[in-house]
Amino acid sequence: RKEVEQDPGPFNVPEGATVAFNCTYSNSASQSFFWYRQDCRKEPKLLMSVYSSGNEDGRFTAQLNRASQYISLLIRDSKLSDSATYLCVVARNTGNQFYFGTGTSLTVIP
Amino acid sequence: GAGVSQSPSNKVTEKGKDVELRCDPISGHTALYWYRQRLGQGLEFLIYFQGNSAPDKSGLPSDRFSAERTGESVSTLTIQRTQQEDSAVYLCATGGQRTDTQYFGPGTRLTVL
Prior knowledge:
The complex is a heterodimer of chains A (110) and B (113).
Chain A: E1 4-6, E2 11-14, E3 19-25, E4 32-38, E5 45-50, E6 55-57, E7 60-65, E8 70-75, E9 84-91, E10 98-100, E11 104-109
Parallel strand pairs in A: 2-11
Antiparallel strand pairs in A: 1-3, 3-8, 4-5, 4-9, 6-7, 7-8, 9-10, 9-11
Chain B: E1 5-7, E2 10-13, E3 19-24, E4 31-37, E5 43-50, E6 65-69, E7 75-79, E8 88-95, E9 103-104, E10 108-112
Parallel strand pairs in B: 2-10
Antiparallel strand pairs in B: 1-3, 3-7, 4-5, 4-8, 6-7, 8-9, 8-10
């Protein structure tokens, strides 16, 4: 079983829509959780860390459900510039190996 | 610059040749990771360095792959006797000792003909 699993999509949504991605992880010992964004032919960049209490950054909201071992990312009021692949990342210990999902592709359509 | 840098940005080589890829970390970052990303695929962990500790080599796909890093300095990833399936983008990421996030370099796009 993969450490991190994501629905690859693609998700095609109109501008202004709300879209949600989920990600599941297999190891209950996982301690750190992140969403990264990767644009086509570019390197991944940290979008946001995911905290147990949930956290919000502008139009982006991340949630963690430890009991069910899943992480979610909600994007409100989608912009064309949100088009990218969103990577779910899980780590067991700070500074140790990170496990990347294969990514969920989002295209925001005018 | 302040970010992670990698060189070369692109490398085209012939099957059977050796290649060396370089990663310059953010100053002060003790953690350094190498990943491989094939076209349309996710990131595949290769190797992890943390300070002067023994590296975690569990992701290296074969003994043709090796990596070196001295202390908190530059790292090199070497692929010997390259094969066509080695064609991919090789990404380096670094992180501080107290941080649990990674900062990626722009990658080296390797094409083996």
